[in-house]
Amino acid sequence: MPASAVHVLVLGGTTEARRLAESLAGDRSVRVTTSLAGRVAAPRLPPGEVRVGGFGGPEGLAAWMREHDVDALIDATHPFAAAMSRNAAEAAALAHVPLLALRRPGWVAQDGDRWHSAGSLAEAAGLLPALGERVFLTTGRMGLAAFAGAGLDALWFLVRSVDAPEPPCPARMEVLLDRGPFDLDGERELLRRHRIDVLVTKDSGGDATAPKLTAAREAGIPVVVVRRPPVPEGVPVARTPDEAARWVRRLHASG
Hints:
The structure is a single chain. By secondary structure, this protein is an alpha/beta fold. The protein is 30% helix and 22% strand. The chain has 7 helices and 12 strands. Strand 10, helix 6 and strand 11 form a beta-alpha-beta unit. Helix 1 packs across helix 7, helix 2 crosses helix 3 and helix 5 packs across helix 6.
């Protein structure tokens, strides 16, 4: 690795983070370290250097970047990892390191969609009794407590997640352990087999889990869509890994 290589720390865990690392892996002017939170038991590791685990808040992240001579920070975490994004913004300011957020575009409703917007998981849970009785819950294993309230005991939940959820969980629940991408035929069959009459999802965006929205539209099933939190104020945003890679290379060229 050339001494002048730009050291980029990527806060990862998403498909976009892995694709960014792949894009930069063959570039000798860039050294990439991807940080994974460690919440998934068997993550797909990107090329380049990888570290697993937390930093101990923004001060810990800033200290790690100083210690390892990080030149740029890219927040490519999940669009709903709001706490980590806030920590990244604070740490970048503390360490005087440029920061970019890599965020895939959100989903857009199409003709025939029956979407209901919610600002939080708790708000989404409150909408359910008026919409259906058999819920396909695709918000991941974190935050299931929002759907464990006594007012939802009459509802049945199919919970899909990569790893097994931990309590508190809905009273009536079946767990489906699976990892995307998912295809349209499979999502159609899932809705039919489990007699799903309402879908709950976060606006994660991307193609890997979007077929469930098409399947719900075709079946006339209402969808509760939890809005994503905003990127911290003042942080520039790239919408694709290629756009983020160009940002990195511009840093190297200007340095």
